[in-house]
Amino acid sequence: MRSILFISLILVSLHTGSAVPIGGVVAEKAVFSPSDTPPSTADPCGLSVVYCQEELGKQITTAYTAIETCKGKCINASGKAPIKGQSIACPRAYPLGTKVKIDGQKYICDDRTAKWADGRWDIFYGYSESDYQEAIKYGKQLKEVIIQL
Predict the structure, then answer these.
(1) Which residues contact 22 (CB under 8 A, 6 or more apart)?
(2) Residue of 1, 119, 147 whose CA lies nearest to 62
């Protein structure tokens, strides 16, 4: 039993970078047990329970619909049809598939803004006339944009 406790404490010590005394109380606070896997190097934050994000601050956001942008079949830059409440056209500096949060709503960057509008975030509002009217009403707004890594 003492060897298992010692292994747990070594893992805690390696993870936190600080010396950890051997003792039962410390073992209860251990970050890892011998059966746990250390943090993955693929996880940019090193812990799977932490959500990594980059806050970009206030950014220009707009809204678009299929009515003013699609001629015939509506396909975005990712090769798929845009989805209301999920699709966003991102600045060209961000790769397709980037996850974005604006006003608590999560979007996936699956389209690109036009070159003349590069730098703004264009939210897809849908396919109907009422969606188009909502997009016009949205206009151009400064919103906090968060990239989720």
Answers:
(1) 5, 6, 9
(2) 119
Q: How many structural domains is the chain composed of?
A: 2
Domain containing 115 — which CATH number?
2.40.40.10
pLDDT 10s digits, 48-60: 555 588 888 999 9
- pLDDT at position 140 is 96
Domain co-membership, 11 together with 70: no
The domain in which residue 120 lies consists of: 53-148
Amino acid present at 17: G
Residue 137: phi and psi, rounded to 5, are -65, -35
Predicted local distance difference test score (pLDDT) of residue 117: 86
